[in-house]
Amino acid sequence: MNVCVRTVSRIWNLAKEQLDLGQEVNVSSKKKVNVGRKRKELDLARTATIPLNRRRTIRSLARCLGVPRSTLHDRFQLKELKRITNTVKPFLKPANKIARLKFCISMMDEHSISTPYPSFKSMNNMVHIDEKWYDTTRVKNTYYVLPGEPKPERTVLNTNSIGKVMFLTAVAKPRYNDEGQLTFDGKIGT
Known about the structure:
- The protein is built from 4 helices and 5 strands.
- By secondary structure, it is α+β, with helices and mostly antiparallel strands.
- It comes from Hordeum vulgare subsp. vulgare (Domesticated barley).
């Protein structure tokens, strides 16, 4: 039972004493259930009324609710609050949806469309190309420097027009030979 011998002996002796006195045997734990400092009353339902831009950090939400940040952090640890990430998604007009659907249909194998299990083309002759833009520097950076070391000096003509770099990458489907060895990894170039 993963307890020491003294604990079992103490419980056994307690049960024998109660039997000798003619009492009902009760060896349940005598630990109090609700011990320690009680939690502060906090109406978390008010969180839904606070605008989303005021709920981005625990600090700003605590300020809006009028409670200490540590109290709100404790409630987050107790899973009474939840942190989520939200990304902006493109708005698709009906014409965009139709164009996407037409592209998906064009990738279907014409010979398998009339069968019960249609399949897609093998895409062995397809090359995918995409580009990604990066800023050459960020407006605000954090650095760790030694005491006495000069601060790095970073300058641009205008913080609203920081230089950009574009990567253009082309990839295709990897190819394997009959023994299962990779003959082409699919990376054409960047």
